[in-house]
Amino acid sequence: MEVEHYRREREQEFQSKQQAAMGSQGNLSAEVEQATRRQVQGMQSSQQRNRERVLAQLLGMVCDVRPQVHPNYRIAV
Length: 77
What we know:
This protein has 1 helix and no strands. The chain has one helix at about 1-65. The longest helix is centred in the middle third of the chain and has 62 residues, at about 1-65. The radius of gyration is 33 Å and the shape is elongated. One of its GO terms (molecular function) is proton-transporting ATPase activity, rotational mechanism. InterPro entries: V-ATPase_G (IPR005124). This is V-type proton ATPase subunit G.
């Protein structure tokens, strides 16, 4: 009986420690999730702010055609 009583005590201690550890781990997971959401929202707002400027710059580079002879071109005689 004493052994059984001791085993129950130890089991209860273990479960309480396990709950405490898992509880803190759950909070950590929630904090990481929240930080990730904030970072994603920041990236999305940055993308929205800079979208037009980047598109204009990209279209300017693509549409600005300057015909010229390549420096390595050799005229065949």
